[in-house]
Amino acid sequence: MDLMHSDKMNRVVIIKCPDYDKLYLTKNIERAFSYFGGIESLVNKGEKILLKPNLLVKAPAMAGTTTHPFVVKVVADIVKTAGGLPLVGDSPAFGSVYQVAAACGLLPLLKKDNISIVSFRGNRSFNDKIRITDTIRDFDKIINIPKFKAHSQMLFSGAVKNLFGLVSGKVKAWRHFKARGSHEKFSLMVLAISEQVHPCFTIVDAIDIMEKTGPRGGLVRRAGLLFAGINCLSIDRVMCDVFNINSDRVPLLKTARKYGINGCRLRDIQIEGDEVSDVRSEKYLFPKKLNDISFSFPRVIKSVLQHLVMVHGGHVISDQKKSVIN
User: Fold this and answer.
1) Is 272 exposed, middle or buried (0-12, 13-18, 19+ CB in 10 A)?
2) Is the separation of the CB atoms in 168 and 123 below 8 Å?
3) Which band of pLDDT confidence, cut at 50, 70 and 90, is reported for residue 312?
4) Which domains does the chain have, with CATH numbers?
5) How far apart are the first and last CA of the chain?
6) Would you say 107 and 56 are in contact if contact means Cβ atoms under 8 Å apart?
7) Is the pLDDT of residue 267 over 90?
8) How confident is the model at residue 204 (pLDDT cuts 50, 70, 90)?
9) Which residues contact 173 (CB under 8 A, 6 or more apart)?
């Protein structure tokens, strides 16, 4: 069944999940898949599946900067039950994907079950519209596993914004520079990535969320929620409703509405799982004012140099250890 063209396209599931206990996670993530026909409806035997968590920078799991490693591992285990081959990849802002995975505790979980981490190759053009990592051609499908957190430039980072991580290397900083202060221009670029890659499923880690500022260094608070669906915009729109965020303040959603992109209007979304009224809260804090989306040219250069120092000047996993997981 083609879920991309079914009535499940704009369905969003909200699920209470009190903590990162493996039994809770497995039960609740399997429940999320069940609203879409189960993992077997999304993943076929023998398919290579890229799991795309948020692995922004080196930070412990408790910092709320990265997708929690237990969430990623449970999704990988579920993919394997359908006969799929899960691999994990991202392009961190600073440091290598191996360094970031090691810092948040994901690396040892994956090594234990021989699940590979992939380091993204360079970018190539797709449909003459966007340039993202050539690595996605190695995979049959993508499962998007974002971390829900405040973002000083985009208000929050959720389902759509996480796909910006498919831009390999420090080209991301250059994309900020090219936005020239326009949140709309930057949003159109991220929305084009989402449209191109079409993750077959997205499950958002909102068990612990980051508030007030982000995408790193903010306050971490227990929300105890998972959000799941196929349309990333729909997921982001529902999260606005749950966390009492004015969607007009979210550049990605505002831009999507302006250009008539499907899935960003609440009336078009089918919400299932736990009731919004049971999980909605007005207590969570998000940036009161958005920062400039652009990076100055000196900041781009500084970012590149900092990245190179962290990758080549810090602790780098030896080639012998990498061969076990890559």
Assistant:
1) middle
2) yes
3) low
4) 16-315 (3.40.50)
5) 32
6) no
7) yes
8) very high
9) 295, 299, 300, 303, 304
